[in-house]
């Protein structure tokens, strides 16, 4: 679990969505950085057990990404 303001880095090329599991806004490359926003995480989208976090990425699209692909 991450706290608001936590810095993250992507571990693979990751999709960025408008809402958890929603419309795809774009992608972030492997190693992209960003900050967790103040929103609460969402769990179990697409029937998969995964947390989703709203992220303010340094560049490119901002939005929701699955926790499996950030650290």
SS class: mainly beta
Number of helices: 0
Mean pLDDT: 90
Please give the largest β-sheet: 5 strands, antiparallel
Number of E-type strands:
7
Query: What sort of overall outline do the alpha carbons produce when their principal axes are compared?
Result: globular
Instruction: Using the CA coordinates, give the radius of gyration.
Output: 11 Å
Q: Helical percent range?
A: under 10%
Which residues sit in consecutive blocks of at least 5 with pLDDT less than 50?
none
Keywords:
71 residues, five-stranded antiparallel β-sheet, two-stranded antiparallel sheet
List the helices and strands and how they pair.
Layout (H helix, E strand, L loop, with lengths): L6 E3 L4 E4 L6 E5 L4 E4 L5 E2 L7 E7 L5 E4 L5
Antiparallel strand pairs: 1-4, 2-3, 4-6, 5-6, 6-7
Explain how this protein is built.
The protein has 71 residues and is mainly beta. It is built from no helices and 7 strands. It has strands at 7-9, 14-17, 24-28, 33-36, 42-43, 51-57, 63-66. The strands form 2 sheets. Strands 1, 4, 5, 6 and 7 form a 5-stranded antiparallel sheet that branches. It has a two-stranded antiparallel sheet with strand order 2-3. The model has no long low-confidence stretch (mean pLDDT 90).
């Amino acid at each position: 679990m991450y706290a608001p303001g936590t810095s993250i880095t992507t571990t693979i090329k990751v999709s960025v969505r408008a809402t958890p599991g929603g419309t795809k806004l774009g992608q972030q490359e492997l190693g992209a950085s960003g900050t967790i926003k103040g929103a609460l995480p969402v769990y179990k989208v697409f029937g998969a057990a995964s947390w989703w976090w709203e992220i303010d990425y340094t560049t490119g699209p901002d939005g929701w990404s699955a926790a499996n692909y950030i650290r």
